[in-house]
Structures are given as structure tokens and as C-alpha cells.
Design a protein that fits this description.
Blueprint (H helix, E strand, L loop, with lengths): L2 H6 L3 H23 L15 H9 L2 H18 L10 H23 L6 E4 L1 H15 L4 H14 L13 H9 L3 E6 L2 E5 L4 H12 L10 H24 L15 H8 L9 H18 L7 H11 L1 H23 L12 H29 L10
Amino acid sequence: MSNDHAAAGRIASIDILRGVVILLMMLDHVRERFYMHTRTGDPMFDTIDADLYFTRYLTHLCAAVFIFLAGLSAWLYAHPRDDRYRSPSEFLFKRGLVIILIEIVFYYLVWADSFPSFMFLQVLFAIGVCMIGLSLACRLPLWLIGALGFSIVFGHHALVSVDFAAGGLGHVLWTILSEPGDLGQVGGLTINVSYPVLPWFGVILLGYVAGPLFAQSMPILSRRNALIGAGVACLALMLVLRGFNLYGETLPWSSQETASETIMAFLNFTKYPPSPNYLLITLGFGLLLLAGLDSVRGHSKLVRAVQDFGSVPMFMYVLHLYVLLVAYWLLFLIFGATHGERFGLSGVAWIWVGAALLALAHYPIAHAFASYKHREKRARAWLSYF
């Protein structure tokens, strides 16, 4: 662990996993910015090629793992290493509002060139609302928080048939909570909710309940075994539910003409809102990654670089979106429109190349800002929001 990180008392495995998520987000946003000529759908279309399918699928880890870690980090905030409990309610409430504001202002400006008459309330909106909800729920007993989280994650799918007439208060609330769609118009601007909040609220609650695994008194081996056990259980349950088309996904799977197409059909889960099977597979692998990273010792330069990205996630999230916006218009000016009215990459491999170049360009900034944050966070409270 670097001296800066050690001094800040941070848990390396959490920052490293969060860094992996940020890098995967970069991959997904390169795809969104430069590969819009080929839509992936939700669940993904069965007509897209396997390389695009699995590129998109890999990035499914992002939202579920990031929100789970947000809940886990909230528990760690409430239980610092000196064992003196501090209520996270005020911090979570303020941070939730700030994140929603970032979504409304900065994220809209990034995509205003493509959707000038639409405002999409996406993952930052969902995270912000979840944090505000957790600021209230954290006052409950831990077992009740866990029961509520499990009930939402697994029970939400049973509500897919619930519907409300457009224009009413019920429609507005249900769109925010469970059914993606348009809320209405404000001054000619259509407000659309892309990330319904309710299932993600269940995820952040489960992350909070997992917090005690990272208490200072918890033996490392016990924590690792618990994470592996929970991860395997998630994946096993997903295989049973999905394998027999029992529950957890609206679209059933069936055998296809080729093995790769059959695998794609089996794994084709809904993200908006996330189905139980989507959450089981993403959180299952996320827990296994967290367990594996818990044993990382003597970090290589690569691991420390990923950790830097993960220790300043919000700063990196906002920054890379604007860098992508500038890069897009530069390439558009140089090469012109290559796919309809837009500039677009010619193949999926270029998405990966673009993401690698984006990460390399951002690393010096991530390293410098992470060092500054860990050095100055106690004196500058605003740094905790990044």
C-alpha cells in the first residue's frame, strides 16, 4: 500500500475494486460516445455480435458494485477505526444531494449535444436518492436493514406488472422507483428516469449490512470466507433461477443455434430496472473480486494505479465524461461524420483501444488528485465528496 493510502487508513481492496469499476465505466462511456450507431438494448438484442455483447456485459458490473460499495463505505464512515460510532445520516443526506446536483447539471451538459430536449436521470441520480434513503434507514437495527434490502432486491421483480396512468402522482412516483420512462416536461425539457431507484436502494442497504465484515476486529480469513461464500451463493442461486426459468427475469432463455448464442441468451438480463438475476450475477462476481483483492499484498504499480482511480471515483467519473466530449468533437472535426450524422468507431476493438488511451491519459491526474485528497481531506471537508 502506498504511504498516502496507508496514512489515510483506507481499505485497499475497496479502493481497488472501485477503481476497476471506474475503468469499466470508461470502457462503457467510450462505447456510448463513439459507438452509438449500434444499439445494444435492454435486455440486449439477440442480433448484435458477441464482441459487442460481452463488451457491454462486462460493464454491467459497474452500477451494482459501485452502489454496493457506497453502502459498505457508509458503514465504514459510521464505524471509524477508533471504534467511536458517528451517525452517517447528515453526511449521506448532503452527499446524496450533491450527487443529484452533479447529475442534473454536469451530466446533462455532457450529453446535451445529443439529447438537447431531454434530461436523463441516470446512475448518479439513483445513487444520490439511495444515499438520502440510507441516511434515514441507517437508524434502523442492522438485521432490519438487511431484511429490507433482501426483500427489495428479490421482491421487486414481482411488481413488474404494476402500472399507473400517465400524468398522475402515482405514475411520477412509480417511474422514479420502479419503471423507467418520462416524468413529464419542464419548460420544454423532457425529464426521463433511466435508473429507477427502488432496486438500487435494496443494493445499497445490502452493502451497508456487509460493512461489519470490514470491521477492524474481523479476522481477514473470516471476512474472505464470508465474501466467497456469499458470492458463490449468489451465482448458484442465479444458475438455478435462470436455468429453470423460475424467477428473476422477464425474458426466458432457450437453446440457440450455436453455443455462444445460447450463452448470450442465458445471460441476457434486464438492467433498467435491474432484475434479481442481474443483481445476483453482478454482486456475486463483485463479492468474489472483493475477496480476491483482500489478499493482495505488495501492490504492483498497476494495482496502485487502479487504487488511485478508485480512491477519487466521483472526480474521475465527471472528468472523463468531459474529456470524451472534447475528444468526440475533435475527431468529428478531423474525420467528419462516419456513421449517419455522427462520428463513430469502425469496430468493437477500437472501443477497447479508446478506453485504454483514456485510462492512460487520466492516470497522472488520478494519482495527483488522490495524493492531494489523502493529504488534505481532514482540513478540506469538500474533498470527501470526490
